[in-house]
């Protein structure tokens, strides 16, 4: 079920009515969350509910039995979860690469044709819930939290519908205490929840969905236009599309959680306004980057095992992060590029030097955006050849502008790209200049703003409907 | 401000009505489009004048205009995007034909592309037939009524101002009245030159068409065929590249029980070289109906 679907417009009110009736009874509350979350997920394909059940039960049982043999149950959980990911997300990738390698050494191989069609289908949100589930057993293993005994409490955490399919990845030790409490949702929290939901829909349906047709067309036509300006514009549009799409989803998830009396941490904090790549990663998909920091980078040794090993671990973590996003070499290169850029930043400390100059910050902003933009090419491209050919166009200094003709898609993309820039700029100035007192006039203005944005979502929605991160 | 959410809902409702009433009409209503296509395969009515073909057919022949000549007939346009003449389309034609009535007419609108392999494999009907159950109910009952909420496309506002635009008006009977400004009749020849480099006339597809014409005529259904009018440059290109031989096609259709309508291309105007604009489509529809009527009278 998609947040931006008619069926969700029916599902959500029904859920909140039932939830508010039962929320004072802990057990019923957890059962309600679990049942509705399963309906939410099963609406896409009920057969894959068994996968969440399997993954969840494995971790639930592993954590409960951790006191008997810590290492055995940790490995059982890791192998089970990563095994599911390997089968459903990576089997085609591995089979294709094994076939390629076998052919290279002269052996005929057709593994990719023998894969069961059911395992070729990528279950929506598998990467999110397996990571969420694994983090629970790892935390129990490390003694950071105790295992939960109530199975509905566990599944209400694991399958909670606002964040089930595209995050933010919520930590068990953050959410269990909240699920165990009975908090009254205040009027202000309800209002803030609504604001988050409306802003989330605006980002997704108005900006991201209106940029999508132009970006998709550009990547479909691939090499028909070779102007540097054109490709920079395409990649800028894609950068905005993915940012507004994903942060919009996170905002809606956070808003829904607020209505349930829960708090999900911020997942995107205006990452394109960063003055170092490190800062970018502290602001982009925060729940995932901190997950990788806590469960991959630090367990590998982090920066404690020396400067160069630290660099290597960081690079490795970024490559794994790329592979998490998608089973293709383009994603691995995307992660590796970020690893290299972060390494250069850490070795040279160039951001600190440039920052000292008067115009240092705008220059840094530009440098960071360029790095992120080039990496996005690999993230979006259909294959490596396409990615390299686009990079060549971007570096060819061909300033031909003959591509500017009257095309509806391009004109729309330009309009909504500017709207995205204005949206981010409004955030920038709102944090610096306007600190209103909460007078009635200001509150009315707030009401009017949310109404206008809601109407904008209704009448200026774009044609695309799926959230980009569903595929991960 | 305890009741902010209530105020917000009221203001939103008011703004929705204001914007909804004063908004510019969409050039291509997405909600109408969704209902239009779904209705082609999931309509429950019966018809006794069915028009079949590809995009030139669903843009070029208006059932309403046909009905002005054939007064007591119910006409439906069953043209599909890149539509060929495969078993699916004839299954659909047979589903819609009103077998209780004795005089049923099927009009086959031929284009060289519609007899190629690619058109034969066209998955447009299959993709629409997937809309079953809730999805079908949603499109037929909700989407149809949501034209008020059609998205506003900013570039369209600018395009209108500068005299550009691609306008579609969807009719429940399967016709799309289309206009494009500015007209450019050289668009289609370029596209079809590329298309016919790898995709040509398919004997298999043509044989399926002939078999079905034979079957339909055996069931006392009158089958009329014509080659849809296009820009003369495109016609010349199609004749030279597609492998479509009009004379052979015509004679084999007649041998299998069908009738052939001769159409004078120069009477009708296209906006892209391939598709007729709204007025020409109306004119062609009336001309076709008159020709069919006179043939039936002569019989």
Number of separate strands of chain B: 7
- Helix and strand succession of chain B? HHEHHEHEHHHHEEHHEHHEH
Largest sheet of chain B: 5 strands, parallel
**SS element count, helices of chain B:** 14
Domains counted in the coordinates of chain B: how many? 1
What is the radius of gyration of chain B computed over CA atoms, rounded to a whole number of angstroms?
21 Å
Largest interface: A-B, 29 and 28 residues
Distance between the termini of chain B: 80 Å
**How does the overall form of chain A come out from the CA principal axes?**
globular
- The helix fraction of chain A, in percent, is over 70%
Q: How many strands, what sense, and barrel or not for the largest sheet of chain A?
A: none
Top keywords for this entry?
A: mainly alpha, 2 domains, B: alpha/beta, Rossmann fold, five-stranded parallel β-sheet, two-stranded antiparallel ribbon, 13% strand, globular
What this model shows, in words?
Chain A is mainly α. Chain A has 2 domains: 6-182, no CATH class; 188-459, no CATH class. Chain A is built from 19 helices and no strands. Chain A has helices at residues 6-22, 26-45, 49-64, 70-104, 117-120, 126-141, 151-158, 172-180, 187-221, 228-259, 277-283, 286-300, 307-325, 329-348, 350-355, 360-380, 384-394, 408-432, 440-459. In chain A, helix 3 crosses helix 4, helix 9 packs antiparallel against helix 10 and helix 9 runs antiparallel to helix 18 (408-432). Chain A starts with 5 loop residues before the first helix and ends in a 13-residue tail after the last helix. The mean pLDDT of chain A is 88. Chain B has 299 residues and is α/β, with parallel strands linked by helices. Chain B has a single domain (4-298), classed as SGNH hydrolase (Rossmann fold, 3-Layer(aba) Sandwich), CATH 3.40.50. Chain B is built from 14 helices and 7 strands. Chain B has helices at residues 4-22, 30-42, 55-60, 63-69, 87-96, 117-120, 124-129, 133-142, 154-162, 187-198, 203-218, 232-241, 246-255, 278-298; strands at 49-53, 75-79, 104-110, 165-170, 176-181, 221-227, 259-261. In chain B, the strands form 2 sheets. Chain B has a 5-stranded parallel β-sheet, sandwiched between helices. In chain B, strands 4-5 form a two-stranded antiparallel ribbon. In chain B, strand 4 and strand 5 (176-181) form a beta hairpin. In chain B, helix 4 (63-69) runs parallel beside helix 14. The mean pLDDT of chain B is 90. The chains are: A mainly alpha (472), B alpha/beta (299). The A-B interface holds A 6, 187, 190-191, 194, 406, 408-409, 411-412, 415-416, 440, 443-444, 446-448, 450-452, 454-455, 458-463 and B 1-2, 4-5, 7-8, 11-12, 15-16, 19-20, 23, 30, 138, 142, 149, 151-156, 158-159, 162, 164, 166.
